[in-house]
Specification:
alpha+beta; Beta-Lactamase; five-stranded antiparallel β-sheet; 18 strands; 3 domains; catalytic activity; membrane; 13 helices; PAS; PAS-assoc_C; six-stranded mixed β-sheet; Alpha-Beta Plaits
């Protein structure tokens, strides 16, 4: 009986242990299941939050039927409510141009997201847009489904096209172009830049734009240029620069500031044009318009303009200036006896001698066949003007050897002084002219100034 009792007790103990273990495992499994359900619920909540807040448009579909859309997708497809999209076929939102590609991708099955691609999609109102799209297989509500992410890249495409066009223009334009960073370090130049300056791209990369400087402009020029560029965002003007071979050239430049984050300047772009030849042509035309074609001395137009400036300066500085009118004596016989070719050579030689006999600031002009005008910008008194006039007469009297012929001339000179004789340029020249003709009528080969006593009736004084 004792052994039987012990056996029953042992079996009861074993059963109790098994029951305890089974019950304990069940409770642990229940606790584990509860924890997993809580984690799943939290994960699903987080997913739904991310789904709704995602800036990317998201659609979940199963075999093409839309199950869920977020607000971004609803907005992008032009739907006032999700109900206008749910249960529809995703192909309804695909443009015919992209349907073949979309169908091919839908047949692919992968747990990993498919590579991004560009597809043309269609809104509810029928308008289309270019989208960047990717998709991946997921489980939704316990069943396999596909999650599609997409965003409108129409503006990016336009920007890409614009960038491509800009690169093509930059590369192929005939206008030299240069791009620098905000500090003026050269980043990029085009082929036209190389053609005009002689510098290859590698020659100037990371060099300051001052590598082109010729030294023609002073520091104040560049300070003013940069001040305007920074204040206005652009600058346009002419710059005298130096090519790689040392040759000086003139360019018309238009500079623009490129701004980025927080409106800060990131780059400068400079479009240039070589106007050296144009400037030469313009200067040539201007020179021809304002100078005597034979002697290259200033003509009457330029002389009058300079006299006007001299009078204004003299008035401001309380100084005097004078005009001398020279008429050559004996020039007509030279033309008659030796021909106009010799006469022209004589005039050119005299023009050179007269120009060299006055100060650098003064001016000699040819205004007729054998007539010259001289502007003396700053004289002390009448004596100073007469001294110059007498020196010029002596100079003209010196014989000149032209084509082996010794030629002798004389000169009669009349003069007028501002402000003693006249107060404007035309009157001053006219009085000097009258004084010269008075000399020609009375005593050739001398110099005289008109008197300030009576301007209406010019009186000549030695």
């Amino acid at each position: 009986m004792g052994e039987g009792l012990r056996g029953v007790l042992l079996i009861s103990l074993l059963v109790s242990i098994v029951v305890y273990l089974l019950l304990n495992s069940r409770f642990s499994a229940i606790r584990m299941a509860s924890q997993l359900l809580e984690q799943f619920a939290e994960s699903e909540t987080r997913y739904k939050s991310l789904f709704e807040l995602s800036p990317e448009a998201v659609i979940i579909h199963r075999q093409g039927q839309v199950l869920l859309v977020n607000k971004a997708a609803q907005h992008l497809l032009g739907a006032e409510s999700p109900g206008l999209l749910i249960a529809r076929n995703v192909l309804d939102f695909v443009h015919p141009d992209s349907k073949a590609e979309v169908l091919a991708r839908m047949k692919e099955s992968s747990d990993k997201p498919l590579p991004f691609t560009e597809e043309k999609l269609v809104r509810l109102d029928g308008t289309d847009f270019l989208a960047e799209v990717t998709s991946a297989a997921i489980h939704f509500e316990g069943k396999p489904a596909t999650q599609v992410l997409f965003r409108d890249i129409s503006s990016e495409q336009a920007a890409r096209y614009e960038a491509q066009i800009s690169r093509a223009v930059f590369k192929h334009t005939h206008e030299p172009m240069m791009v620098t960073d905000a500090k003026g370090q050269i980043i990029l130049v085009n082929a036209a830049f190389t053609q005009v300056t002689g510098y290859e791209s590698l020659d100037v990369q990371h060099e300051n734009a001052s590598i082109l400087s010729s030294g023609y402009h002073d520091e104040s020029f560049y300070l003013a240029m940069w001040d305007e560029l920074k204040a206005e965002g652009q600058w346009e003007g002419e710059i005298t620069n130096r090519r790689k071979n040392g040759e000086i050239y003139i360019q018309r430049a238009h500079m623009s500031a490129i701004k980025g984050f927080q409106n800060q300047v990131t780059h400068y772009i400079c479009v240039m044009s070589d106007i050296t030849e144009q400037k030469r042509e313009l200067e040539s035309i201007r020179f021809q318009a304002l100078h005597d074609p034979l002697t290259h001395l200033p003509n009457r137009i330029l002389f009058i303009s300079e006299v006007k400036k001299a009078i204004s300066s003299a008035k401001n500085n309380k100084q005097q200036c004078a005009v001398l009118f020279i008429d050559l004596d004996g020039f007509k016989p030279v033309n008659d006896n030796y021909g106009h070719l010799v006469g022209d050579k004589l005039l050119k030689a005299l023009a050179k001698k007269l120009s060299g006999a006055v100060k650098h600031d003064d001016m000699v002009s040819r205004v007729g066949g054998d007539e010259f005008l001289v502007l003396l910008r700053n004289i002390d008194d009448e004596h100073g003007a007469m001294t110059v006039a007498e020196r010029l007469i002596a100079l003209v009297k010196e014989p000149l050897l032209i084509d082996g012929i010794s030629l002798h001339l004389g000169a009669s000179i009349g003069g007028a002084i501002y402000p003693d004789h006249a107060l404007n340029e035309l009157e001053l020249i006219d009085l000097a002219d009258q004084a010269m003709y008075q000399v020609k009528r009375t005593d050739k080969g001398r110099a005289h100034l008109c008197t300030p006593v009576n301007r209406a009736n010019t009186i000549i004084t030695e």
